[in-house]
Amino acid sequence: MDEMEKESIQKKLYKVLSEHFILPDNLNFSTYLCRNKNNMGFKLYASPLQGFTDFRFRNAFHQYFGGIDTFYAPYIRLDGKLVVKASYERDILPENNTTPELIPQVITNDADEFLFVAKYIQQFGYKELNWNLGCPYPMVTKRGMGSGLISDPDKIDHILNRAHSETNIIVSMKMRMGYENSDEILNALPVLDKYPLRNIAIHARIGKQLYKGGVDLDAFQKCIDNTKHTLYYNGDITSVAEFKSRQERFPSIDNWMIGRGLIVDPFLPGMIKNNTYDYPENRWEIFSQFHDTIYEQYDAALSGPVPIKMKMQGFWGYFSQSFSNPQKTFKKIKKANNAIHYKQAVREILKGEQ
Ligand SMILES: Cc1cc2nc3c(=O)[nH]c(=O)nc-3n(C[C@H](O)[C@H](O)[C@H](O)COP(=O)(O)O)c2cc1C
């Protein structure tokens, strides 16, 4: 049976059922269809994490775990000049990337910079540029960038206007719901409605929170109710159960973005996609191969013992959270002061889990 036949049967069934019963939660038809579609056809996106999800991580992630439809590259930021740093370029060069779809991102509050980066990425064949209005750090927000720009719809309008009249780049957004409060985004959404954005990914926090406190699901619902754009949900998807509860709460959403959760537990996207709570039998073997792949690549790319130690320590700050004893695991990694001790510590940690 193909999708159209299925949908037609679903419609008939729904009609009959709704004539005789009150459907759960008083679902309307489009919600009902969305919910059904979700069960089969939702998409998962890897949220960008500067310092973590560069091309080496993304490629290895895709090779060993899968489950992610599209990866977003961490932001490109210009330092006052129309020049892109070599490290940003390396990260998005098509020959360095083996994942199915990659979308570059920019952080800026300047139309010329936006246009420059849009044209810059187009030379590598990219058609879409994601715009970061989410970064919460005061160094960024005080200069009216990241989540500090959400409260300035006129500036957003100006930049989007120039992007759409002077380039043919497809623009997508990644935002928080405001910096000071979650009403800020409600003033920006009508401006965004004027442009053919591909989507708006919303991390359901405000900038002031940084990463503290919970996500605000009621405020996210208000965003759904106040935009014509396709929204992607982002924030604290850390387990299959958490994902399912968000899916229940927002049946019209079929695009989900995961950030820290996929570093903490790289199996998570695949498990969500396969609708299972079970890890593969060779879970730690796969993790070990993934670990060795990124370790070797970072070791070759970084010079000296300190940068590689810091790099891997950063990862283990996340990885350790899915181990049986997170604190003990992380402590062991931090104690390892050279490459030999580090490799030994990793071996012991993984042996302990098997
Ligand atoms: C260390 C770190 C770096 C991040 N870098 C970026 C970035 O470059 N661009 C961006 O849009 N968001 C960035 N974020 C935000 C994440 O992409 C994501 O929106 C946020 O962590 C919420 O999702 P999560 O709860 O699934 O992690 C970063 C977050 C962290 C913790």
Would you write up a description of this structure?
This protein is of the alpha/beta class. The chain has three domains: 3-34, no CATH class; 42-273, TIM Barrel, CATH 3.20.20.70; 283-353. Helices cover 50% and strands 11% of the residues. It is built from 16 helices and eight strands. It has helices at 3-20, 29-41, 55-64, 86-92, 111-122, 138-141, 153-166, 184-192, 217-225, 240-249, 260-264, 268-273, 283-301, 305-319, 326-335, 339-353; strands spanning 43-46, 70-76, 102-106, 128-133, 170-175, 200-203, 231-234, 255-258. Strands 1-2-3-4-5-6-7-8 form an eight-stranded parallel barrel, surrounded by four helices. α10 (240-249) links the parallel β7 and β8. α3 (55-64) packs antiparallel against α13, α5 runs parallel beside α7 and α7 packs parallel to α8 (184-192). The longest helix is centred in the C-terminal third of the chain and has 19 residues, at 283-301. The radius of gyration is 22 Å and the shape is globular. Mean pLDDT is 92; it is low at 13-39. Flavin mononucleotide binds at residues 47-51, 74-75, 105, 132, 134, 174, 203, 234-237, 258-261. Flavin mononucleotide is lined by residues 47-51, 74-75, 105, 132, 134, 174, 203, 234-237, 258-261.
Radius of gyration: 22 Å
- Number of helices in the DSSP assignment: 16
Determine the CATH superfamily of the largest domain: Aldolase class I
Corresponding CATH architecture of the largest domain = Alpha-Beta Barrel
- Spell out which ligands are present: flavin mononucleotide
Strand order, sheet with most strands: 1-2-3-4-5-6-7-8
Q: List the secondary-structure elements in sequence, H or E.
A: HHEHEHEHEHHEHEHEHEHHHHHH
Total DSSP E strands: 8
